[in-house]
Every structure is written in structure tokens, then in C-alpha cells.
Amino acid sequence: MSPSRSLEGDRNHTSVAMFVLLGLSDEKELQFILFPIFLGIYLVTLIWNLGLITLIRMDSHLQTPMYFFLSFFSFIDICYSSSTSPRMLSDFLKDEKMISFIACATQYFVGCWMAQAECCLLAAMAYDRYVAIGRPLQYSAIMAPGLCQKMVAGAYASGFLSSLVQTVPCFHLYYCGPNIIPNFYCDITQIISLSCSNPFIIQMTLFLVAVFVGFGSLLVILLSYGFIAASILKLSSIKGSAKAFNTCASHLAVVIIFYGTGLFMYLHPSSSHSKKQNKVLSVFYVILIPMLNPLIYSLRNKEVKEALKRLVKRATHLL
């Protein structure tokens, strides 16, 4: 154990200055196999998301609110993945997977900030799709650049504040000895279980944030899609209905994957296999989803494919 460090003056302190991350596996051979796999996933995540941001910024046909939101969504995925992947990759090559108290708090803060911002941004994108389908003649007036910028700023600010109110109380709890986290990153539920303090306040804080930010965003998404469904049903032509639904398909797929995995990970009952299940779900939620999101938007979107073709055509003319 490292020397104790003060947390709340002389009255409260913690003797834990380092946490031990157990990682995905303690088998050395398996870790060497997993390293190139997860390095590849992380590089694909960076390349696809950065590529999508660049494409949106460079192509004039993609200068619409939907793609404006998508570029910031891709930036969130880059930051979210980068909060855990580099540490996990370096731990594959280490015998002792130690993380300092401050580094653990920072990792959780950034990851939580990005996850909460993603919830809010998904809600903003759902509202954008509702306006595009339900009120097409007023779309340009309603989704003006100023409103889009405020919605993005609001999503990032909400994520920042909600992450702050979770991180500060959690890492001001009294940690008197146990310091082993059975995962590859600093998960707040597992960190709280190591505390020697009464966790009631931080647990209530987590619950309230989940209700207001997580479920609040989900409610906006569900309401938006309810109005979208009602608008699609009013369309007389099948072709028009299919086209309207197709504009929402990618966003809907991302929402189902993001919320479906998150709800299952934090709401499923504990069992004898819960630690292994948590690790598998954590990998999918923290590592794979940021890679899948740009793929879903790119592969299912005709406008993105056409923009990519135009960019390649321009590049070949320059050579």
C-alpha cells in the first residue's frame, strides 16, 4: 500500500493510492493474442471516426444538421474509446496492471462525460429526424445553425456536469484497503464496492443521473420516434414511407445497440457468471460500439457513400 493521502481534511483519508485492474485475462499467452486484435479495433475506431468527421467537413452536400450532429457524435466516440483502449493495450504487455487513484478518477470522468454526452446527442439527433419527417417545410427554419450549435453545446455541457457530480463524490469516499478492480477499466460500480464508506449518497447520485440524463434522453428519443411513426403512417405512398424510415434507420440501430447494451449491463441480475458477463458486455459497450457507430452510419447511408466517391474522384484527378 502507498502512503495515505488526505481527502476530507484530518477527519477522512484513504490508504489506497493505486488500484489493480485484473484486465480481460490473466493468461499471458492469451494477452499477447488479444493485443493485436484490440489494437486493430482501436485503430479502425480512430480511422473511421476521423474519416467521417473529415468527409463531413470537406463535402458541401453533407453540410446539414444531421451530419453536423454526426461529426460531433464521431468525436465523442473517439474520446470515449481513447479513455480506455490505450490503457488496456498497455496492460496487455504488463505483469502488474496498476493505475493510480488520480488516473482512475480521470479515466472514469472522461468516459462518463462522453457516454452521457452521447445520450444527449442521440436525443438531439432523434429530434432532428422528427422535424425532417414530421415538419419538412419548416425544417430549415427550425433546425437553424444556431439551434444545432446550442444543442451540441448542451449535450457536451450536460455530459460534463453529470460526470462531475458522479466522479467527485465517488473518489472522495474512504478507501481503506481493498483495491482490486475485476475489469480492464475503472468502472464506478466496482470502485464503490471497494469503499469502506457508506455508499448511499453516491448510489443515489448515480441513480438520479441515470434517470435524468440516461432515461430522460431515452424518453425524448422514444417520443420523437412516436411522432415519426405517426408522420410516416400519414404518408400515402409506400415509396415515401420507405424513404422516410430509411433516413432514421442508422440512428435507430445506434440507439438500440447503445441503450440495449447499457441497460443489460447495469440492470441484469447478478449471478455466478456475472463477472465474465460484465467483462464481455464492457468490451462491447466501451470498445466495440465506438467502432460500430461510424460503420453503421457509413455503410447504410447513400449520401455518405456518394460523398466518399466524390472525394476519391477529386483525389484521383489531383494525382
Topology at a glance:
Layout: E1 5-8, E2 12-14, E3 18-21, H1 28-58, H2 65-82, H3 85-92, E4 98-100, H4 101-134, H5 139-142, H6 145-170, E5 180-181, H7 188-192, H8 200-234, H9 238-267, H10 274-299, H11 302-318
Parallel strand pairs: 3-5
Antiparallel strand pairs: 1-2, 3-4
Helix pairs in contact: 1-2, 1-3, 1-10, 1-11, 2-4, 2-10, 4-6, 4-8, 4-9, 6-8, 8-9, 9-10
Structural notes for this entry:
- With 319 residues, the chain is mainly alpha-helical.
- The chain has a single domain (20-318), classed as Rhopdopsin 7-helix transmembrane proteins (Up-down Bundle).
- The protein is built from eleven helices and five strands; from the N terminus they run E-E-E-H-H-H-E-H-H-H-E-H-H-H-H-H.
- The chain has helices at residues 28-58, 65-82, 85-92, 101-134, 139-142, 145-170, 188-192, 200-234, 238-267, 274-299, 302-318; strands at residues 5-8, 12-14, 18-21, 98-100, 180-181.
- The strands form two sheets. The chain has a three-stranded mixed β-sheet with strand order 4-3-5.
- Helix 4 (101-134) runs antiparallel to helix 6 (145-170).
- The chain is globular, with a radius of gyration of 22 Å.
- The termini are far apart.
- The model is unreliable at 1-12 (pLDDT under 50).
